[in-house]
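U., I forgot to send this yesterday:
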Amino acid sequence: MEINKKSGTVISLEKAIELTHSYQENSPEKPNSYFVGLDKINELLQQKGGIGLRIYPGLDPQSNQNNMVLVAVDQEGEDLTNGIMLDELITCPPMCPKKPTKLIKSK
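Result:
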């Protein structure tokens, strides 16, 4: 697998359900999902040389809360750490979809 603008794989709803439910069963103490707004994603991706993004798991040492750090990546596969990076994505829980979603396993 190589890093380029087409990296990643489109999956079916069934595969997404399988993956998310397995994660939730094995990591019940961790967030079910993370949300980031389109404007922030665009701001990250519009950095000069950016062809995609990398997502790092993060842990706030003060609050002991999990989150993600998003950083743009260039065509060489290197992080663009001189630009903006994103953190403090909105987690579910507490900010979950109001309507039931197939991607969150019923308890």
